[in-house]
């Protein structure tokens, strides 16, 4: 496995390591972190990472403030895990990487694996001394694809040639039968379907449904390469609001080591609301 992935056993052995901060990232903490969590884990609700006014991530200064308040320093090894098989943990990993945190990792299997393995849990909310966190660099260019870029690639006929768009949503979303998973809040997308030329490889195909852990690299490589997602291409992943796309981005970039993978986090919530945008079903 890639060095940015740690096992549940590793986390259990490092629960009280002062050099490690364990962070649970949840969509809905009331049904996850508040019910139980890994001992000594800090909570970051995914909305804490969102800009308070516009649809975007928090600014570097606000990220610094959040990390400082949570007791996370630049030197900490940050281990992320969460609900929904680490959707929002990989989403947070993407942001930590963009804001230059040197050592950030994902706990393989997230809450699912921790629970199924019968590991210790807690409802206590730890408090750590405040730090003086500083964002040392900001690098979105190699991680994030913007609407105008994706649109140009579609209109210029680059998709399925040197660029591969991977729609990681469910087949029903891809076909335009629904605009959001039934168990999930609907972001009011006006139309259903997918970006022209995108191929559909649902994010969950990369995960063992029994354990919540990533499938072995050789299995993942066959999955993506058989669909034409190869390391010689530029890969852009998308979903509905970005969190599932970040999961597949993590798989391709950090497990399979693809050199050019980005997330279009505007995703279908942006594309499906654009007047005149091309759509396929």
TrEMBL record:
Family matches, as PROSITE patterns: RHODANESE_2 (PS00683), RHODANESE_3 (PS50206)
SMART domains: RHOD (SM00450)
Keyword Repeat found: yes
InterPro entries assigned to the protein according to its UniProt record, in alphabetical order: Rhodanese-like_dom, Rhodanese-like_dom_sf, Thiosulfate_sulfurtransferase, Thiosulphate_STrfase_CS
Lineage: superkingdom: Archaea
Keyword ATP-binding: no
Record keywords, A-Z: Repeat, Transferase
Signal peptide positions (record): none
One Pfam family of this chain: Rhodanese
A GO term for molecular function: thiosulfate-cyanide sulfurtransferase activity
Domain Rhodanese: 16-123, 159-280
Record's protein name: Sulfurtransferase
Organism: Pyrobaculum aerophilum
């Amino acid at each position: 496995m890639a060095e940015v992935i740690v096992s549940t056993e590793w986390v259990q052995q490092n629960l009280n390591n002062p050099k490690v901060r364990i962070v649970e990232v949840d969509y809905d903490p009331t049904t996850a972190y508040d019910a139980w969590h890994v001992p000594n884990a800090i909570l970051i609700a995914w909305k804490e990472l969102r800009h308070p006014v516009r649809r975007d991530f928090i600014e570097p200064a606000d990220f610094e403030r959040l990390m400082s308040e949570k007791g996370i320093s630049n030197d900490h090894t940050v281990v992320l895990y969460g609900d929904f098989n680490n959707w929002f943990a990989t989403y947070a990993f993407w942001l930590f990487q963009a804001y230059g945190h040197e050592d950030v990792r994902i706990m393989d299997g997230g809450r699912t694996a921790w629970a199924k393995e019968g590991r210790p849990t807690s409802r206590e909310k730890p408090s750590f001394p405040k730090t003086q966190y500083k964002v040392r660099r900001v690098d979105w260019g190699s991680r994030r694809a913007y609407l105008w870029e994706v649109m140009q690639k579609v209109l210029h006929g680059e998709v399925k040639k040197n660029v591969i768009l991977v729609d990681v949503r469910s087949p029903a979303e891809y076909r335009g039968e629904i605009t959001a998973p039934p168990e999930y809040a609907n972001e009011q997308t006006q139309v259903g379907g997918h970006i022209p030329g995108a191929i559909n490889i649902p994010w969950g195909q990369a995960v063992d449904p029994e354990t919540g852990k990533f499938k072995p690299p050789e299995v993942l490589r066959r999955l993506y390469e058989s669909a034409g997602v190869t390391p010689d291409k530029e890969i852009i992943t998308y979903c509905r609001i970005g969190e599932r796309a970040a999961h597949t981005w993590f798989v391709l970039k950090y497990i399979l080591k693809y050199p050019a993978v980005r997330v279009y986090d505007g995703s279908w919530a942006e594309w499906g609301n654009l007047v005149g945008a091309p759509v396929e079903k």
